From TrEMBL:
<keyword id="KW-0012">Acyltransferase</keyword>
<dbReference type="GO" id="GO:0016747">
    <property type="term" value="F:acyltransferase activity, transferring groups other than amino-acyl groups"/>
</dbReference>
<protein>
    <submittedName>
        <fullName>GNAT family N-acetyltransferase</fullName>
    </submittedName>
</protein>
<dbReference type="InterPro" id="IPR016181">
    <property type="entry name" value="Acyl_CoA_acyltransferase"/>
</dbReference>
<keyword id="KW-0808">Transferase</keyword>
<dbReference type="InterPro" id="IPR050832">
    <property type="entry name" value="Bact_Acetyltransf"/>
</dbReference>
<feature type="domain" description="N-acetyltransferase">
    <location>
        <begin position="7"/>
        <end position="152"/>
    </location>
</feature>
<dbReference type="Pfam" id="PF13508">
    <property type="entry name" value="Acetyltransf_7"/>
</dbReference>
<dbReference type="InterPro" id="IPR000182">
    <property type="entry name" value="GNAT_dom"/>
</dbReference>
Length: 157
């Protein structure tokens, strides 16, 4: 199934913080049940996006029928976040967001993914990312084994 053109990608603004927080919290809880329970509530995560992430990263949102259904956050050449509301997965929206990130990353993009997140790993591998390194979880706050993936223009799709 693919997106039918009803989704548009635009730069995020401060007013999007609550919707981005909702996407973030919902996606993580549904798609990554192995993560420890979220200790921060919606208001605290909204503040974090508004006061930290939106100031540090370039963020794009996927908007469908006037609702934010996904977002991607790029810090330099590192894709810090790419999340979709669970009911909007596998419609091509993640690809639209990733394509926008890659357009703004002429030298390539790196990202970290939990090793057990098979869906995300498959998504990025389909889009030309390759494994750069793996760790036992010492670099993430969840302390779960992760890996760095890298996409370099011209090496694949």
């Amino acid at each position: 199934m693919s997106d039918d053109g009803r989704t548009r990608i635009r730069r995020a603004v401060e007013a999007d913080a609550a919707a981005i927080a909702h996407v973030h919290l919902t996606s993580r809880s549904v798609t990554m049940p192995y993560l420890p329970p979220q200790k921060r509530g919606h208001e605290e995560v909204t503040r974090w996006f508004r006061d930290v992430v939106l100031k540090r990263c370039r963020i794009w949102v996927a908007v469908r029928d006037a609702e934010v259904v996904g977002y991607a956050a790029l810090d330099g050449d590192v894709l810090e976040h790419l999340y979709l509301r669970p009911e909007f997965r596998r419609l091509g929206i993640g690809t639209l967001l990733l394509d926008e990130v890659r357009r703004h990353s002429p030298d390539g993009v790196s990202l970290h993914v939990f090793q057990q997140n098979a869906d995300a790993r498959a998504f990025y591998e389909r889009h030309g990312f390759t494994v750069f390194d793996t760790t036992d979880g010492e670099r993430n706050m969840e302390h779960l084994p992760d890996m760095t993936l890298r996409w370099t223009p011209g090496r694949s799709r």
